[in-house]
Specification:
The chain is α+β, with helices and mostly antiparallel strands and 481 residues long. It has four domains: 91 residues, Uridine Diphospho-n-acetylenolpyruvylglucosamine Reductase, domain 2; 119 residues, 2-Layer Sandwich (Uridine Diphospho-n-acetylenolpyruvylglucosamine Reductase, domain 3), CATH 3.30.465.10; 116 residues, Alpha-Beta Plaits; 96 residues, Alpha-Beta Plaits (2-Layer Sandwich), CATH 3.30.70. The chain is 37% helix and 21% strand. Helix 1 runs antiparallel to helix 3 and helix 9 packs antiparallel against helix 14. The longest helix is centred in the N-terminal third of the chain and has 17 residues. The protein starts with a helix and ends in a 20-residue tail after the last helix.
Length: 481
Amino acid sequence: MSKVDEFLNAARHLLGERGLVTDPDLVEPWLTDWRGRYTGKARALASPATTDEVAALVRLCAKHGVPIVPQGGNSGMSGGATPDDSGDAVILSLRRMNGVRRFDTQARQITCDAGVVLQTLHETVEVEGLRFPLTLGGKGSATIGGLISTNAGGTQVLRHGTMRAQVLGIEAVLADGTVFDSLTPLKKDNRGFDLKQLLIGSEGTLGIVTAATLRLLPALAERAVLWAGVGDLRDARKLLLHAERMAGDALEGFEVLPRHSLASVLSYNSQARAPLQQAHEWNALIELTADASTADTLAALGQNLLESAMERGLVEDATIAANEAQAEAFWAIRDEISLAERAIGPAKQHDISVPVADMADFVVATMPKVEKAFPGTTAVAYGHLGDGNVHFHVLAAKGVDAEEWENGQGKAISAMVHDEVTAWGGSISAEHGIGQMKRDELARLTDPVHLAILRRVKDALDPDGLLNPGKLVPNSVQRSS
């Protein structure tokens, strides 16, 4: 019996027929990332049902030197959950671990398995008059474990912060199969390093998140969703500051979309409707929220905000969603931009951030610079202006060969965008993680001290390099075979 067969037999004995799949046709859907950019190979798809099974499988993989690629909803944007093409790795899916372990409505906390889908979590807590304050376009497939591993952002970061801010406790299996259990939420805990924060955003390279305790908030009593047309992104920045002054904590979201993004969605989705009669160079999507104590005044606040913005010349035209259906339709436009762009053709997507105060100036300066350097391309920026994070996409000229463009001009474009971001003191990854897509750029542009610390931590917690190899930052030594 070969060593591979010995390992697979042991894994099958551990997980059962349902927990270990080797049929190529059944494994194949999980070998390609959501964007379709990366496709790898794997020995098997392992789907443990409990933390104990995860730990036992990790120990088995360590014994046999088998790499592990953790995978949540396989909806990541940086190829972080896709194996390489060696075929040595096992994909570790957490999708069967989808239960709620504890739900304390009075404390506004929930402890759940890593495989719980974000939308399911929203629906679960909503029944009890609570909400989880993080959402994004992929909420129907993204899992809690994946969101933690990438420190996901979304459209509510302006008020509530990234996934890091929502995690009160964490459980994870380390590279040697031991279980780090820190699920109990403590308001104060001064026992040295905050290890759960080390694991958040580590993309499965330091440990496999199996469960988390999350903070919840009271359900919203009312919301007002506003759509404003503005002539310039700098005006959108001024509108944001005006909204912050007027609305305070009621301001939950502030997104910007250029004319091109709105037109792309309207062309892609025949059911979508432009919120305003006339087209504007930029659009701002604003959400105000209120609890029961201030719900009655929210509509007036939204109206006053827009009227005063128009008086100051910050807004060319604006509207307020008349009902919940229209509010959802406004947000659907924002959520469909990525899909609409994919339908147009190849593009290089950049998830970048610069200091919040500089974002408008950065976009205004960089878009024409990129288009001049690469004639025929179209630069598009949209997203979370209030967080200093936009999705800076560069669409290829019409008629190019997608693969040839991606590997040629596309790489040069990304290098230029990342150089510009670095020159502005920003980050090449604001909320999507590094994965394999940005690993080399991270090494090229990151401060050597920063990079050295990342490698030392990786070497210390995963000395054999078995956890998600080739992602984020490689070990300083080659993985043992």
